[in-house]
Amino acid sequence: MFSWSGRPGGSGSSGGGAPSAAHSGPSISRSAHLASYLQHPVLKPSTRKVSSDDTMYDTVFQTTNGFALIVRVYLPADAGRAPSMTLHGVRASHDWLDIRMKVIGYGPISTDQGWRAANMKLGDAVYAVIHHFQLKPPSISEITDANLRRLQETLSGPSNNLRSSAPANSSEFPHSASDSFSGPSHARNNSLPNPPAYPAQGGPSHGRRSSLPHQPAVGAKPNFDPADDEVDALIPPIPSSFLEIDNLPLSGLTQLVEDKAALASFVENRPGVKTLTELKQSVETANVTAAKANLEHQDELKGVRSEVDTLQKDLTAKIEKYRALDDERKALTQPPDRQEAISELNRAKREAYRESEQFADEWVDSGGEDVSAFVKQFMEVRLLYHTRAAKAERLETSM
Predict the structure, then answer these.
(1) Which of helix, strand or coil describes residue 99?
(2) Distance between CA 2 and CA 130 in Å, rounded?
(3) Mean pLDDT by 10 residues, the chain (399 residues)
(4) What share of the chain is helix, strand, coil (3-state, %, to 5)?
(5) Are 196 and 218 in contact (CB under 8 A)?
(6) How many CA atoms lie less than 13 Å away from 330 in the CB half-sphere?
(7) How far is CA 90 from CA 59, 65, 66, 99, 163, in A?
(8) Distances 216 to 33, 69, 110, 151, 225 between C-alpha atoms, Å
(9) Helix 371-398 vs helix 338-365: angle between axes, to the nearest 10 degrees?
């Protein structure tokens, strides 16, 4: 499937920096990224979708030391964000991996800005990462996926020196005789099966039998936060005895006791110490990477914080204005007090009565010439007086 010696044209560099053959021109669309990955001449036969949407895929490959590994690729819905890759189903140490088995050593996918600047396709990035792991395999301390462990046993026999924490009900990989692995002349030519199909997640099985009835649904976004038991699993247990010391002659023991440099060298070369040192370096690298990624967004965060503060002040002012207007609305729309309404009607009634009397007195004083006009205007004011008086009396009787 994969070749360690030859690489297709246009693939990214296997190093941690920018790719040697970046695509020029405008930014690459998300569909173009997916097409470059799923239709890649080398990656396609061993790649399967593992999420209900089109964000997560698994690709199986084999390293020069005979290990079969799975790279899980997550492509965000936003094409401007960098994809993430993890080694799935194992616990390992490598200068490109952090404690979560996330790939942090490949430059183009380390930050969103670096991914946009690299302007390379997803297929090239995945191939570059897999090619690097093929040539420089990680140190595997544990296989946590039962599928992968059984696959490894079919390739190289049981690995007694590796621990397995995979559940017993995990399913097997479906084997395909058509998928062959092409390596260098000194490597074995093993048949490498495709990753399992996931019909429960909506992915096509291409006629292969379903083999993951207990596979949990994979979320739209992977969770890279390690649990405490995951961290503890990476720390080697304290040995109950040291066979190297037990088998040393007296002169060797004397040298360890008297020569501090020899004792320090002896301790540093112990497998457990090496594992802890690699784990420490992995944690430090992951922390530095996360810190740099946070610092890249520092100015953006400050700008957003300032904008949020301004919007919060505007919102507070508008809420106060709204409350004042709402109180005014309630005063205008709520039913008036009945006693106040009666008092207001009586006041208006008296006002209409005074108007009518004043109008009559003025007409008399002026000589009383136009009787028709006087009667019409006088009756309008007098009718208003009687209407208000009737309304006040009606309200009084209804109380």
Answers:
(1) coil
(2) 9
(3) 43 43 60 93 92 91 89 90 92 88 91 88 94 92 86 69 43 36 37 43 37 38 53 68 80 88 86 80 86 89 93 95 93 82 88 87 81 85 88 84
(4) 50, 10, 40
(5) no
(6) 6
(7) 14, 15, 15, 11, 10
(8) 27, 20, 28, 20, 18
(9) 160
Of 337, 51, 83, 82, give the one whose Cα is nearest residue 216. Answer: 51
By the 10 Å C-beta count (0-12 exposed, 13-18 middle, 19+ buried), 264 is classed as exposed
Question: What DSSP string describes 190-250?
Answer: -B-PPPPP-GGGT---TTPPP--TTPPPPPSS---PPPHHHHHHHSPPPPS--HHHHT--H
Quote the tokens at residue 317: 């002012």
Residue by residue, DSSP assigns 48-95 as: EE-SSSSSEEEEEEE-TTS-EEEEEEE--SSTTSPPEEEEESEEEE-T
Given CA atoms 139, 144, 145, 146 in this order, what sign does their dihedral have?
positive
In degrees rounded to 5, what are phi and psi of residue 360? Answer: -65, -45
> Amino acid letter at 273?
V
